[in-house]
Design a protein that fits this description.
Layout lengths: L1 H6 L2 H18 L8 E6 L2 E2 L3 E3 L5 E2 L1 H13 L2 E6 L6 E4 L2 E4 L1 H4 L5 E8 H4 L3 E2 L9 E5 L15 E5 L6 H6 L7 E5 L2 H9 L5 E4 L7 E3 L7 E9 L5 H14 L2 H13 L21 H5 L19
Parallel strand pairs: 1-5, 1-8, 11-12, 11-13
Antiparallel strand pairs: 2-3, 3-4, 6-7, 8-15, 9-15, 10-13, 10-14
Bound molecules: 2-acetamido-2-deoxy-beta-D-glucopyranose.
The site of 2-acetamido-2-deoxy-beta-D-glucopyranose (NAG) has 5 residues, from α7.
């Protein structure tokens, strides 16, 4: 650089300056816009995010995103992507989806944090809780027993946190075989045609299948926004979510989910207790793993959690 500068004539410097000015005009024709944070949803998780019969994308997740973004004064938008854009199971292991890693969007909405997912990604503070269950055919005709997993064929959904690594972590051991279904319909078929003994998933109710009473813990800290490790999203989302929660508006919205969006089954979204004094727990409570107690574990239909 020093060499070049020594040789530069004033005229050449002016030319360089002129070039910079032209470039400046070309590069900055309009004022810089604030970033729009794009949240991806699957669009098939009523009442959280789903495309109604009218074709409109809606649900409690979308309301939450809007509310928290408003609190944070951030520009946000939602998009719809297939599950595998966010999570996938490849050769029996969890891998992040291409959409999230390649930056097609900023966040995968309401995903469960798990040991294998945090190897690859990070999560915001939890927005609700989840659980893990085994589901069998009505009456459990194959006598599936979670304590005898070594002789059972398990199915879970693609990219699910309810996977073989979790059964090993929680002490149930390695199943005889593990199948990965693309969706809940395929998982049901595998149960119905007796290829699989049980579905391992976050769901607590099915109309036509039996969810066994055991509740297991495959998550680290419930359900949050799943983002890349270099994402700045949690920096503004976490404080804004806390503010929104403390205002009581989170619980108000939660109370209305059932009425507003309906549910596929009898479960509803219950904050821990609807009494006023649970609406303002200490901040530390919200942040700690105890926050899992904020809501009942009866969050239904949590296939989602994918
Ligand atoms: C069972 O259902 C699955 C999923 O539809 C299918 O791929 C498989 O071939 C079926 N197996 C039998 C034995 O019918």
């Amino acid at each position: 650089m020093a060499e070049v500068n020594r040789r530069s004539s004033p005229l050449r410097k002016m030319n360089v300056l002129g070039l910079l000015c032209v470039c400046g005009l070309v590069i900055l024709p309009t004022p810089v816009q604030a970033k729009t944070w794009v949240f991806a949803v699957g669009g098939n998780r009523r009442p959280w995010n789903f495309i109604g019969d009218d074709g409109v994308l809606k649900g409690a997740d979308l309301d939450l995103i809007q509310a928290v973004c408003d609190v944070a004064n951030q520009k946000c938008a939602t998009t719809v992507v297939p599950t595998e854009a966010c999570v996938q199971t490849v050769r029996g292991r969890f891998y992040p989806g291409e959409g999230l890693m390649a930056g097609w969007f900023d966040a995968c909405t309401s995903y469960v944090s798990s040991i294998d997912r945090v190897n690859a990604l990070q999560f915001t503070d939890p927005i609700r809780t989840t659980t893990s269950t085994f589901t069998v055919l009505q009456g459990n005709p194959k006598n599936f027993d979670p304590l005898n997993l070594q002789n059972a064929v398990i199915v879970h959904l693609n990219g699910a946190f309810t996977n073989e690594q979790c059964t090993i972590r929680i002490g149930l051991g390695r199943p005889k075989a593990v199948l990965v279904a693309a969706g809940i319909a395929e998982a049901k078929e595998l149960l119905l045609n007796r290829t699989a003994d049980a579905l391992f998933s976050p769901r607590t109710t099915f109309n036509d299948l039996e969810v066994l009473p055991g509740r297991y813990r495959c998550d680290v800290s419930g359900v949050g926004m799943m983002v890349k490790k270099d994402s700045e999203l949690p920096v503004w989302w976490n404080p804004a979510f806390q503010k929104y929660y403390m205002s009581g508006r989170y619980n108000d919205a939660c109370d209305q989910i059932n009425q507003k969006y309906g549910v596929d089954d009898g479960d509803t979204c219950h904050p821990i207790k609807s009494s006023a004094d649970t609406r303002s727990p200490p901040l530390s409570l919200l942040l700690s793993s105890a926050s899992l107690l904020l809501f009942s574990t009866q969050f239904y239909n949590w296939i989602s959690s994918t």
